[in-house]
Each structure stands twice: as structure tokens, then as C-alpha cells.
Amino acid sequence: MDNADCTRSAIESLTGLSRPTVTERLRTLSAAGLIHKTNRRVASGGRPATVYEFQPRAYVSLCVDIGEVHTRVAIADLRNTIIEETVLDQRVSDGPQAVLATIIEAGRQLLASRAVKGDRLGGIGVGLPAPVDFATGRTVGWSIMSGWEGYEVREHLAAEFDVPVFVDNDVNLLTLAEHRLVWPEESHLMFIKAGTGIGSGFVVDGRINRGSLGAAGDIGHARIAGYGDPVCRCGNRGCLEALAGGWAMARELRLLQSGEYDGVMTARDVVSTVRRGAPEAMALIRDAGRILGEAVAFATSLLNPAVIVIGGELARAGDQLMAGVRELVYSRSLPLATKDLNISLSRLDESAGVIGAAFLVSDALLAPERLDRVLRATGPAAS
User: Fold this and answer.
1) Average confidence score pLDDT of the chain
2) What's the rounded mean pLDDT across residues 363-383?
3) Domains of the chain by range and CATH?
């Protein structure tokens, strides 16, 4: 109802709910501080109707996107709009105590900033570059987060800020942001993050599919045959990431021993060489697109998404990567699965991860069951 006056009768008409139910819901939302009555009145055929207004600053969320080399920390409102943010030069390999201490300090500074000071913190959302058991908030299985295994990230932050904390895989948060902001009408979406490593996230029937233990989407460690068996960071051989990940391509360029690529260490460095027109880098990223396309083609036939979105640092190479992905997906997937398939580059920027974390928190704060608890706690009140 963003473009309409939000009155009780308008809500009844839109939702089909009875007047008593709508009255109760409005009272619950008011008790939670999420809406308020404005001074505006609109004609309604009888007494002028009161207009209600959503309060996006009733709560703010602390949003954290932990990366391999950098961590982004932000404050967002309940419309999932970023108010303040900062990027920390903190490597995940520094360990949970050091990384979380830096995040806590940055979070407190943002909450005390002029733009945010006085707002009430409602929750914290965190993205980790690892498979995450969403029920416990702990990392599971192998990941680049050595030393974080089983660490109580959720409890650590909850003890500092005394609010609910929600922890998820970083690619799931990117998927959530892309789905809600760019493709909200699609119920089936696949997001591929092609950066230093490779991961994916899935929206199935309109919801993020995390799998039974949080391992859904760990496509980077699927074996891709026919391209040799280079050793992966996980210890296995022939993984997709070891063939098409940013770290693997940087390694291949350095092995050329021409001297031109000695400083190429990251996915960003690889993309920079592609943009300069370096022929070896351009050939390498086209091949990476085809290899990535093989894995995506299999997932396409399996899950039949309506949209495949490619994001991450390597996606900044644009058509150099996308041409290979499209070629393989359309040639290797089932015809029915690609009949109306849209393969697109991500339209979001580097803040997508913290925006996804904001959605994670706002979904929880605005969940009907939470509002029901508020109603029970506040008891009867005049509407």
C-alpha cells in the first residue's frame, strides 16, 4: 500500500480480513512501535478515516557481511535501506575472536553515529563465507574459515548487544537481496557468486532453500571432469572452484612466468587484467565461464529456475564470463528447463550482502508470530 492511503477500511478491502481482526492487527503493530496514526484524514463516506503510517526506524538492524579479506558492517532500517556502513580490512583467517571484536567495535560506532544515534537496535544479521547450519548459526563442514568450526558466533554477538542474531551463508544473503529487490515476481531463482571462490544460492517456491544442514548451494566443490584435476583448497581435486575460482585463475596467470602477472593474487586482480585486454587473462576467463556453465547447466536441469543471476567479483568481467556460461547452459540443459530461462548479471553493488542481512532481520522482526507475542505481552488496549 505504498502508493495508497493506509486506512483501516483500505486494509480490510485489500486483505479480506474482518474489521475486528484488522483492528487487533493495527493495535499490535502500534504496540510494537511499527506504525502510528498520522494527523491526516481521508473521506470514507462517513467519518473521515485515520491514515496509518509504517515506521521504518522503529528498529534498526546491524548487518554484517564477513568476507575472506574484507568485512562490511552496516546499519539498516526496516525497509532494508542502508543508513550507515563501513568496510573493515579484517581477514577471516584472523579468527573469530579478532574478527568479531572488530565487528563489535565498528557496530557500536555506527550505532552512535549522528545518522543512527537514538534508534533502537532490533537484531543482527551476519553472512559467513561458509556453509552454515541456520538453526544453530554455526559453520558446518569444510570452509575457508579455519578456526571458526563450531564457534558460537550468534551467542558471541547476542551477549554484546542483547538482541536476536541471525547467521547465514553469505551467498544465501546475496540471493535474498537479489530476489527481493530485483526479481520479486519470480518464485524460482538461482544465484551464482563467482569471486575468489564459487558458491550458489537457490530460491525455491519463493523461499531460500538451505538444505538439511546448510550445505545447499556449495557448488564450488562439485567435481568437474575433463579439465584435469588441480588440487582445490578443500583438499580434493578437480573442484569447480579449483578450475574457475578467482584464486585458481590468479594462480594460473602467475604460473605463466612472463612476469606480467606476478602481482595477480585475487579475483579483482584477474578482472583488472581482463579489462586491460591481456590475452591470456581473457582466454582464461572465457574458459572459466564454460566450466562454470557446465555446473550451472546441471543445476538448471535439476531445479528449473526461471532466472539465473551471476554475481561476485568475476561477474565484473561481464560478457567475457557470461558468454561461456550462456553457451554451456543452453547447450547442455534440458530444452524445457531453458525455454523461458533468463540468465543475467547481478544488478546490485557491493552492499548486497549487508542488504540481504537486513532482510534476514526485518523478516524476523515483522513475522506474525513475533507480533502475536507483542500483542499477548501488551494486553488489551484501545484502538
Assistant:
1) 90
2) 68
3) 8-55 (no CATH), 60-175+351-365 (3.30.420.40), 184-345 (3.30.420.40)
